[in-house]
Specification:
Shape of chain B: elongated
Order of helices and strands of chain B: EHHHHHHH
Oligomer: heterodimer
Helix content of chain B: 55-70%
Distance between the termini of chain A: 65 Å
Number of helices of chain B: 7
Strand content of chain B: under 5%
Largest interface: A-B, 42 and 26 residues
Structural class of chain A: alpha+beta
Radius of gyration of chain B: 24 Å
Number of strands of chain A: 26
Number of strands of chain B: 1
Largest sheet of chain A: 6 strands, mixed
Chain lengths: ~625, ~220
């Protein structure tokens, strides 16, 4: 991949490490500037890239961000949004989510969900990779260097498969992911309440699709996470859904017919609902208004007082408080012992969220930093630490979920407890049950419950090639290591020979290395497409310049300088160039630019000569004046 | 999930060959060393095998060593140093987590002397009480089924009182545990003979199995409440 990327842009490779917040609703990239962390904006000044990807199979057209969002209503079947909710999941996990989105699930989605888009199937890591690539390109353009290293944030409560899927997405986007950082922890870095000796901080992070609570102890530049809890299925999307369901029910009751999940109507309602939600953060009431067209009941208009909105979402917000209490309990703290509360994520703009959090922790939460940007800023600080920029800060994070292995009867033996500081490791001894057994199967799960069926299966692996011996004699030590990314690594050795033991791993969810390799090859197609898009834009820009110059020359001087035949030829070439600039063929645009150039060369020369003469005249006059 | 290779730790520094013994860093070239086979948590943190631990000092050591070992600071180092950094910081985290908690610390010490985690045994003087408690739990369940609020309140009250009694017992056990800690530390300090040390460990093991039993009981009751 790097070879292709380099030849494509021609930019030198950068040594910079950027911080990326890959969000459910929006994503953004930040870096460490001279005066602290900064987000990178586009030409229009926007930091946020909507986490939406549009793909048109017939035109092989791929759009990311705003442009993709613009098509949600007109072409809802071609756009994927909120893909973060599907990361590291199989189709059985997400039936409820799928009911709320117009995506088509491809066959064979048990281990990794696949979205059917025309003839193509895209997995969540691939969709995320398109977003990451867009951010990477934004950063590379900003620095004039090819950015290849990044820190990417994830919800603290993400499990192993979700973290791995995020890392895979980075890899597919041509990024070397130096670290997966937990979002609330990153936010605490950005707030940097480190100007006091010691502080206990709670970070309440309610984003577009996920909720996290982390309790940290800050002391001498060490950010030690004491506990974390959350719900990877609770966020702004759920708030929207409450309003959407209410409105759909009202429309259906009024018209007496089912809306039937018309995806375009659904997106129209969704857009209106989001606007109202935003307005209710600063106003006591807001009006929801949209028009679905005559076939679907026409115009809809309704006032939503804040009280009604709050009673509608009250239960959802309550659901965030239980994880808060659990995290406090795990940290062995009472709410009043918390010194600072930090609010992160766009959904913390909702006044009810703020008041509930204030009520629980009995203190005013911090909202000074933009809740949409604070995670990316923190990621940029961590990126700076990793690139060797500073050693005064150190993040000590924890694993959110207990790690266990299946024992007899489907029970779980916990080997690494939740809220253990990472990296965390544990060695376990395994042996054989029957004589001459040469393989041992181990099933690893994540979760807090006692039974395997209630936990999340991580992987099954087989210790292979054990020398045939009587039962119970082999001693194989398996080392489970949760690294600083919160991702599990397993290694094994035969204790008596000291030899490394071979392991075959079958992840329960997620992509295999082979699948990722294939995706990397497939993505070259899109890399080429990106290049061609860029060439079209450049050709169009050049065409505009050339046309403007030709028009100006025609209007001002052509009548005196060239004959009518030549003027007609220029007008003709101009018309033809204008005709092709709207198209996608950059070669054709270039060709017509050249034709216009040729047709207008004589005129240009005449103008030039006139200009030179005029300049000479001016100069002579000025020399005379000076002399 | 991925797999990596395990490697036995070698004593001489793999970079310059200097004998580093169990040092965290090579005394010659300063590179971080893999953890030597058989290093226990006390060795690792440079602590004697004693049970009274200064928790403030332990946290200080934890932070200071974190700043030396953490993988964040080895991103540009060679593969073997990166690996050693992960090994050392994970051991540091595991050691700190174990030694800062007195029950975990005592259990860990017992494991170093070959004690298996004992069956959770009911203290003999508690058998009658346990019987009573199970009855009360059943009563609460029955009252809930009948939706008899007065009965529920009564059964709850009884259980809550029992809970307070059990918590007092745990507190007493913890007092006793601390006495055994002192006894162990004295025996270690005075380089006492193995019999004397074994006697302390035996008593500690039994006390901990009682504690675990009551601890589980408290958890079960809390679940019912």
């Amino acid at each position: 991949m790097p070879v292709i990327e380099l030849s494509m842009t021609g930019r030198p490779k950068s040594g910079r490490v950027v911080g990326i917040d890959l969000g459910t609703t929006n994503s953004l990239v930040a870096f460490m500037g001279a005066d602290g962390p900064e987000v990178i904006r586009d030409e229009a000044g926007n930091a946020l890239v909507p986490s939406i990807v549009y793909y048109d199979n017939d035109e092989r057209r791929l759009l990311v961000g705003e442009e993709a969002r613009d098509r949600l209503i007109t072409e809802p079947r071609k756009a994927i949004y909120s893909v973060k909710r599907f990361m590291g999941k199989g189709s059985a996990d997400v039936q409820e989510d799928l009911a709320m989105v117009p995506f088509q699930v491809a066959p064979g989605s048990e281990h990794v969900i696949g979205f059917q888009m025309g003839e193509r199937v895209f997995t969540p890591p691939e969709i995320s990779a398109f977003i990451l690539r867009d951010l990477r390109e934004r950063a590379s353009k900003f620095f004039g260097e090819e950015v290849t290293q990044a820190v990417i944030t994830v919800p603290a409560y993400f499990n192993d498969a979700q973290r791995q899927a995020t890392k895979d997405a980075g890899h597919l986007a041509g990024l070397d992911v130096l670290r997966i950082v937990n979002e609330p922890t990153a936010a605490s870095l950005a707030y940097g309440i480190d100007n006091r000796d010691e502080a206990l901080v709670a970070v309440y992070d309610l984003g577009g699709g996920t909720f996290d609570i982390s309790i940290l102890k800050l002391k001498d530049g060490i950010f030690e996470v004491l506990s974390t809890n959350g719900d990877t299925h609770l966020g702004g999307d759920d708030i929207d859904n409450e309003l959407i369901m209410l409105i759909i029910a009202e429309i259906e009751a009024r018209s007496g017919s089912k809306l039937d999940r018309d995806p375009s109507a659904f997106q129209t309602i969704r857009k209106a609902v989001i606007a109202v939600k935003h307005e209710l953060s600063s106003h006591g009431r807001a009006t929801i208004a949209f028009d679905l067209g005559p076939a679907l009941g026409g115009a809809y208009r309704r006032e939503v007082p804040r009280e009604e909105f709050e009673s509608l979402i009250g239960k959802l917000i309550e659901r965030t408080l239980e994880p808060c209490r659990k995290a406090l309990k795990d940290a062995n703290l009472k709410p009043e012992q918390i010194d600072e509360v930090i609010m992160v994520g766009g959904s913390t703009r909702v006044p009810l969220v703020r008041s509930k959090v204030k009520e629980l922790f009995k203190r005013e939460p911090h909202v000074e930093l933009n809740p949409d940007e604070v995670v990316a800023l923190g990621a940029a600080i961590q990126a700076d630490v990793l690139s060797g920029g500073r050693r005064d800060l150190l993040l000590l994070d924890v694993t959110p979920l207990s790690l266990g292995i299946e024992t007899l009867g489907g029970a779980v033996a916990k080997i690494i407890n939740r809220n253990s500081t990472i990296p965390a490791s544990r060695a376990e001894m395994f042996t054989t049950w029957v004589d001459n057994q040469t393989g041992i199967d181990v099933h690893v799960v994540q979760g807090e419950r006692e039974l395997v069926q209630d936990c999340r299966s991580l992987a099954r692996f087989t210790l292979k090639g054990i020398a045939p011996q009587p039962a119970g004699l082999p001693r194989i030590e398996v080392k489970f290591l949760i690294d600083a990314n919160g991702i599990l690594t397993v290694s094994a050795r035969d204790v008596r020979t000291g030899q490394e033991q071979s392991i075959e791993v079958k992840p329960s969810y997620g992509l295999t290395d082979e699948q990722i390799e294939k995706m990397l090859i497939d993505s070259i197609e899109f890399a080429e497409q990106d290049l061609s898009n860029r060439q079209v834009i450049e050709a169009r820009n050049e065409a505009e310049t050339v046309m403007r110059a030709a028009e100006k020359a025609l209007a001002e001087r052509a009548d005196q300088l060239i004959d009518s035949g030549e003027r007609a030829a220029i007008r003709n070439a101009l018309g033809e160039l204008r005709g092709v600039t709207a198209g996608e063929d950059h070669r054709l645009i270039r060709e017509k630019i050249k034709e216009l150039d040729d047709a207008s060369r004589h005129l240009a020369e005449e103008i030039m000569d006139g200009a030179v003469l005029a300049a000479l005249k001016d100069r002579k006059a000025s020399e005379i004046a000076e002399g | 999930m991925t797999t990596t290779q395990t490697q036995l730790s070698a004593n001489p520094c793999s970079h310059c060959g200097t004998k580093a013994e169990r040092a965290h860093f090579c005394p010659q070239c300063g590179r971080i060393q893999p953890v030597s086979e058989g290093t226990d948590y006390f060795d690792f943190l440079g602590l004697p095998r004693m049970l009274r631990v200064d928790e403030t000092q332990l946290e200080k050591t934890f932070y200071a060593l974190s700043r030396q070992f953490h993988p964040d600071y080895f991103m540009n180092a060679g593969a073997s140093e990166q690996k050693a950094s992960v090994e050392r910081s994970s051991m540091l985290n595991d050691a700190y987590r174990t030694l800062r908690d007195r029950v975990a610390r005592a259990k860990y010490l017992l494991s170093l002397y070959g004690y298996k985690e004992a069956e959770k045994k009911a203290p003999p003087d508690l058998l009658e009480e346990v019987f009573e408690l199970n009855m009360q739990i059943e009563e609460l369940k029955a009252a809930r089924k009948m939706a008899d609020e007065d009965e529920v309140a009564e059964a709850r009250g009884a259980l809550e009182e029992a809970l307070r009694g059990l918590e007092e017992k745990v507190a007493k056990i913890d007092e006793r545990l601390l006495e055994l800690f002192d006894e162990w530390d004295r025996a270690t300090d005075e380089a006492a003979n193995e019999d004397r040390k074994k006697s302390v460990l035996d008593r500690m093991s039994e006390l901990l199995s009682h504690r675990s039993y009551i601890h589980n009981l408290v958890r079960d009751i809390n679940e019912e409440l």
